[in-house]
Amino acid sequence: MFLDIIIFIVILAALIIAHEWGHFFTAKKFGMYVEEFGIGFPPRLWSKKRGETLVSINAIPLGGYVKIPGENGIDEELTEDQKAIPRERFFASHPAWQKIIVLVAGVVMNFLVGWLLLTLVFIIGARPTVVVTDIAADSPALSAGMQQGDVIVGFSNPDDFIAAVNAHAGSQFSFQVIRHGASVALSVVPRVHPPQGEGALGIGIAGGGAPQEPFFAAFGDGLVSAAQIFSLIFMLLFKLIASLFGGPSVLSYLSGPVGIYQATAQASSMGVVYVLNLAALISINLAALNVFPFPALDGGRMVFVIAEKIRRKPIAAKVQYVVNGIGFLLVIGLLLFITVRDVMHLL
Description:
This protein has 347 residues and is α+β, with helices and mostly antiparallel strands. It is 53% helix and 18% strand. It has two domains: 2-122 and 276-346, no CATH class; 127-210, PDZ domain (Pdz3 Domain, Roll). Strand 5 and strand 6 (182-188) form a beta hairpin. Helix 3 (96-124) packs across helix 6 (215-243).
């Protein structure tokens, strides 16, 4: 468990640093004044001045930030230290195209990291697996003690496992699963006449694994996979907004820190390549989430930049503070809701 926690922290920290470094690097290239490069959100645990930038590690590990004066407009309230900074180095003083590049740079970094990690996965290859993704209530699988994330031993694809289950309908069926690195023996009686849509055991399963590929093939397949995952997540976010207005709910597809930790523990028990694959998925998730045009996210800030360009005049800092503040609270509220749901599901 301790090793799983370390892997979880290292993955999140590395992906956050990659994202914020994208903002930092491009901002510095355009001559912007970067006050702080923060990992996590305050309260502050540690800090050190590097040139003109304060590097900080903070207590709430849910993200990070690069602080540039003038992010919310040229009329934002300034501290005494900020008043000494030349106005031409403020974020708001730069052309719209430079602002957009700085805002999108973190997204690009997360996408590139995800792409490269998926390339590594295809180069290394992964043995075929069958993983339990869902368990229905009052099902034989639930009674037998099966859990989400169980890796079913002895089957290379879902079809083979389904055929074996159906062949034992109405009789005892024994098999093994890998759970958190340990082998667990299970015994169950598959249903002869299961409810519609559930199957004989009442579980959802997915196949995993990838054959080894040469470098250039892996490089191309990694890019295609990263783009497909990005587009799926991006559309899922639009469906999440639509669900607030009566559309189908997609909350069951979302995970918070607890869910991500569970996935990390399962991946680490299956091998390094599955940890790399999980890190790639998280990185591409971060890219899609941050570019989404919602207040407080990078995509939401880009909307302000584009709106200012169209209006040909700045949007008041107070307006940006209020809109981004509300957006931030909504994001944190959703995260807390998902975390509570994940904890309740775990219990």
